[in-house]
Design brief:
Largest sheet: 6 strands, mixed
Oligomer: single chain
Structural class: alpha+beta
Order of helices and strands: EHEHHEEEEHHEEHHHEEEEEHHEHHH
Distance between the termini: 26 Å
Number of domains: 2
Radius of gyration: 22 Å
Number of helices: 13
């Protein structure tokens, strides 16, 4: 193995693998990958080779490729198109993913840690939601191509936490901040817009969110025995679920997220996954409500402006008051402060406009 790539190029390569449903994601152990890097081997990357690996361009001085090396002595100082990320301590398990005979990439856990060191908080969390979710952006996103839906997550909060524990004492850039960010990372998101909505709900007011607690995304909820006569299903999956209220926020896409591109450009498996979910949504919502769970519908129109999202917020607060009988006036006052309003507006616009990490 001549390279273990990290950073933007690695994120794009992993997206290419996830979007190609037939591609095998082959994890590699530390010893099988990093050993040959110690020799300082260098294989030039051609434009043809980059295209084959799902890269949009050959690395350049302005857009260098981050390469993991085992110590500072092995930095790629001679080559302007490379920059080095030193990870001096072996990580247990299989922290890399094989791309080709000469290239591996940092696995999803290491990519998340690298993102913490190089990207703003909201982009780190969007990337984490994608990696822990059942969708993947295209490597060229934003574009006319839409995300791929209905695929398996490639990591989890637990796996990222375990990797951080492995790296303790290794002085890996970004590792120290991950523990502070992980409490805000949620698993199970099914689309980019679900991730945006969940983060706005979850993040504390001081970070620009609504601070409404920790929702569960697409959790498996068993259907109570007395309601089995209405359905053949034994479980259901609410989109964004606050079990302590209880309320289920259902994101109703406008013809399957038109803001992300043309429906016809979706691959057949993604279309099938979305259609299957859509066909049962109305029946599912009736069943959810009959079980005493309030359903609150959210559409893309609610995200078009800050004003529209503020109206959505007020409607949601009123729903919570109606369900719980508890006043949300303290929350309104907190959200209505000048600094909170500015932070919320900034976070909202950042999440909507920058869903690529």
């Amino acid at each position: 193995m001549d390279y273990v790539v990290s950073g933007l190029y690695a994120r794009r390569m992993l997206r290419s693998l996830r979007c190609d449903r037939e591609a095998a994601i082959i994890p590699l152990s530390w010893s099988r990958s990093v050993g040959s890097i110690r020799s300082g081997a260098y294989v030039p990357l051609t434009e043809e080779g980059c295209t084959r690996l799902g890269m949009q361009s050959v690395p350049t001085k302005k857009s260098p490729m981050r390469v993991i090396v085992p110590d500072a002595c092995k930095r790629f100082c001679r080559f302007d198109e490379f920059e080095s990320q030193v990870i001096s301590k072996a990580v247990s398990g299989k922290p890399f993913v094989k791309i080709s005979p000469e290239i591996a990439i940092a696995g999803p856990e290491l990519l998340f840690i690298d993102a913490v060191a190089t990207l703003p908080l909201y982009r780190v969390l969007l990337l984490g939601m994608e990696l822990c979710g059942t969708y993947s952006l295209r490597q060229s996103f934003p574009s006319a191509e839409r995300p791929v839906y209905g695929i398996e997550p490639v990591t989890s909060v637990e796996k990222i936490s375990e990797t951080i524990d492995d790296l303790r004492g290794a002085r890996v850039h970004g590792a120290g901040r991950v523990k502070d960010i992980l409490p805000f990372l949620m698993e199970g998101s099914a689309s980019p817009m679900e991730s945006v909505l969940a983060l706005m709900l979850r993040l504390p007011v001081m970070r620009g969110g609504l601070g409404l607690g920790i929702p569960k995304l697409n959790p498996v909820i068993p259907i109570e025995e007395e309601f089995r006569c209405f359905t053949s299903a034994k479980t259901f999956r609410p989109d964004i679920y606050f079990d302590k209220v209880p309320i289920d926020l259902e994101y109703e896409s406008e013809e399957f997220h038109p803001e992300l591109g043309n429906w016809d450009r979706l691959d057949a498996a993604s279309r099938a996954a979305i259609q299957k979910k859509s066909q049962g949504d109305k029946q599912r919502m009736r069943l959810i409500q009959s079980m005493g769970i309030r359903v609150f519908q959210v559409t893309y129109e609610d995200f078009k402006t800050n004003e529209a999202f503020d109206k959505l917020t007020e409607q949601l607060l009123r729903q919570i008051e109606d369900i719980t009988g508890r006043s949300m006036d303290a929350k309104r006052r907190k959200l209505g402060g000048y600094e909170a309003t500015v932070r919320r507006s900034s976070l909202f616009e950042s999440l909507i406009k920058n869903r690529e990490a």
